[in-house]
Amino acid sequence: MSITPDPGLVRGLALARKALGPATTLTEVAGDASTRRFYRAAAGSSTAILMAHGKPLAPDAPLFTNHRILAAIGAPVPRLIDRDEAAGLVLVEDFGDLTLQRHLVTTGAGAAPPFYRQAGDLIALLQVQAPAAMRPDDFAAGNALDRERFLFELEHFHRHYVRGLRGLTPTAAEEALMRRFYDDLAAACDRLPRVFCHRDFQSRNLMVMGERLGLVDFQDARMGPYTYDAASLLRDSSLDLDPALVQEMLDRLARSVAAPLGIGPEEFRRDFDLMALERNIKDLGTFGYMATVRDRKDYLAYIPRTLDSIRRTIAGDRRWHQIHPWLERFVLGWTG
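Predicted structure:
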């Protein structure tokens, strides 16, 4: 719906009108899991998206440095039109509202292959070319998806999924087992080769614009495991993917991202499954948090698909079989 600018958005409207003209209006559009708010600025047929962060942004904020890196290597990110850093406002090119997830739900799985091939090539582009575009003081250069970060995400899962959403209280022995599992999983993921990662490379952050994709929500991009973006894309909690397409994409990524690192297809697949397990458990923590803290019960719809993904992963790897009873109770036993 159209909005009447409140004091916090007066500067946003001024920013939009500076770019599009005095007749520009703002209409709030759906956001994401963050606290940011988004508005479509429109003047006739000209549009842009106003991002309102609710707090000031530094000139070297991750949004800006990551955008510079991605634009420099030719990644399909929206153009930055203008900014008001003190007000936390950024005006960007409008990529529309059609996410890859929404497009495939509407059109069916048959439309997926060409877009997923594009997405796989984009992962390779980021990994191969982005490091050369980074500066030493960039956010992405100084931050990583590492053991500490993975432990933070697993603790978030423990707090908001196990205890929060499911209301379970582990015994002292169960708690100790869980902590060993978290530590082992975080350490194993941390040992994987690091590359430039988008960090949330999934269908809700890929915009369909005709026959090409656009990439959004890149402000958290940083260094991380080389299978992280692949796991985000192919173990997506919001879509059921054709297993044949997943296998095709794994073969494609084994050639484009693993082979340049001297990693063979079998090792790549093991590393992919490892990262997918951590990523999916992290997702459960996010869904639990959104449902119990933010009262966004719509996120609960993603849990069954995520649990199915975790089941497939642990069934194919003997290292997790010993703790399967714990996983069954505390992770997989959710019934809605």
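Summary: The first helix runs from residue 7 to 20.
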